[in-house]
Design a protein that fits this description.
CATH superfamily of the largest domain: Periplasmic binding protein-like II
Largest sheet: 6 strands, mixed
Strand content: 15-25%
CATH topology of the largest domain: D-Maltodextrin-Binding Protein, domain 2
Structural class: alpha/beta
Pfam family, one: SBP_bac_3
Protein name: Solute-binding protein family 3/N-terminal domain-containing protein
Keywords: Signal
Number of helices: 9
């Protein structure tokens, strides 16, 4: 075989070979947070995106649910190969994938109240319910306006948060709009829960990535994610969980 033929064969093999060997990928997943993660059913916006992007590259996702705060420890121990819903601020020593999911947090009030909330300072003096650990995630400006507010509280049960807003027990709730809408569908259907709401965009979109221990697997996932977006399947997954029903 000529040197040129050998070179062409080698280049062809390099072109067609996957970036990482196909294998099961143990993925650490934190709290169940519909519609992004629905633990009991092993599905959700984020869950499906990651699962299908990996599958496009020949990998099988194996979910491992742990308390979110333990993800760094478990990843360091090698309990998992990757972790969901992380970013560069997470303090993990991993390869961060391209952005695969974006949370959009709002201050939300009843439209009938006509509240003027155009800046963070407009939250002062308001009765507020936010998601658990909101002050850790939403930045120093939000922390400052809520730190001395005795009417500010956080709750892990976001269904209760929604119910309090519609019942007029709080002025404002703070959370991701898709999570808010998801839990609205779990409330009893009534004139009260059908009240229009006003969205106050005080927060920057929160971009999240997958953290991988193996850089080759990270690169492989990115390729699968690109394929998922290009095919239209990415948008279809998001729409299947967020379109009003």
């Amino acid at each position: 075989m000529s040197l040129l033929s050998t070179l062409l064969l080698a280049l062809g093999a390099a072109w067609t070979a996957p970036a990482a060997q196909a294998a099961e990928v143990r993925v650490l997943i934190g709290n169940s947070l519909p519609p992004y993660i629905i633990e009991r059913e092993n599905r959700g916006v984020e869950y499906d995106i990651v699962k299908e992007a990996l599958a496009l590259r020949g990998h099988q996702m194996v979910p491992q649910y742990v308390p979110f705060a333990r993800i760094p420890v478990e990843l360091e121990r090698g309990t998992g190969d990757a972790a969901l819903t992380v970013n560069a601020d997470s303090g993990l020593r991993v390869c961060f994938s391209d952005v695969h999911v974006i949370y959009r947090n709002y201050a939300i009030s009843l439209a009938s109240r006509g509240l003027k909330i155009e800046a963070m300072d407009d939250l002062r003096g308001k009765t507020i319910r936010a998601f658990q650990n909101a002050r850790l995630y939403l930045g120093p400006a939000f922390n400052a306006v809520t730190a001395d507010n005795p009417a500010y509280a956080e709750t892990a049960n976001q269904q209760t948060q929604n119910a309090m807003l519609f019942a007029g027990r709080v002025d404002v709730v703070v959370g991701d709009i898709n999570i808010f809408n998801w839990f609205n569908r779990t409330l009893p259907d009534s004139a009260e829960t059908r009240q229009p709401v006003a969205l106050h965009p005080l927060f920057e979109p929160a971009q999240y990535r997958v953290g991988f221990r193996d850089p080759a697997l990270c690169a492989d996932f990115n390729e699968g994610l690109k394929q998922l977006r290009a095919s239209g399947r990415y948008d279809a997954i998001v729409a299947s969980y967020t379109t009003a029903r």
